Amino acid sequence: MLEAKIKCPYCGHNETKVVDKRETNELVTTRRRRECLKCGKRFTTYERVEDIDLVVVKKDGRREEFDRDKIRRGLLRACEKRPVSVEQIDKILDKVESQLRVLKDKEVKSSVIGDKIMKELKRLDQIAYIRFASVYRSFADVTDFQKELKDLIKKT
Question: Are residues 82 and 16 in the same domain?
Answer without folding.
Answer: no
